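Recall the central idea of this unit: under ordinary conditions, the amino acid sequence of a chain determines the structure it adopts. In this exercise we apply that idea directly, starting from the sequence alone.
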Amino acid sequence: MTKFLAIERPQEDVPLDSDAELFRPIIEHTTMRTAVSEVWELGSFVLVQLMGHVHNTDIASIMNLVLRWSESGSLCDHVKMANMRKAMVQFKGLISVLEKSLKRRKPITKAKPAGVPQKNNRASVAVSQSLTKAAGGGIRRAISASSLSALEVTSDFSAPEQGYTIQRQVHKTVIVDALRDQVREKFRNMISCLKGLLKNTNEDLESRDVLDRITFMLSMENGFMWDDAYASEQLDKLSKDVLVTKVLT
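Accordingly, the structure predicted from this sequence is:
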């Protein structure tokens, strides 16, 4: 964590509105220059590995834009550098959690999806049989409300000549994973700080693109923040990756 300490050390009287002035103390200081480079590489690597293939495109696009801003000397035009320390604190917290917990992690056993209770199964069969019999001569209206309400299903009464079908709701798999929940919380806090770094998101198209991609990443149903199975699987992969554990330490 020495690289983080070097970056977090306050720099007195450093202007935050010019890339040249902002980075001059870093470029002229070997330790600071090395620390910034290592933190960038660490952050890029860990985020790509942690978030996985679902988020690869968005992460790559965001990082490429930030690199372009840095190389063109326009980083301060897009980023509120005065708020960078808050984001660094949250990033440090995320890395700390991963460093301490990944090496002790045991693969999460996937729980079986919760099935429909037995009484609902019987009701399902009864209604299904009723619908099948009615398919040739018109659907009966005598199916009891109690039978229908007992079913947690979505009905699709299509193609009468082919008969009727009943589609059950998909039951999500419940996976208890304390590390996953902790990492999500740290990641969400860090992302919130990163969103607060962006300038002129209403007028600047590139800043707006970064904000939109971050927001999209946080809202993806099949992504790290909402898909429990996917997030736990990503952490399982990281815990087995020797390179990742070495990088974190």
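The beta strands are 153-156, 165-168.
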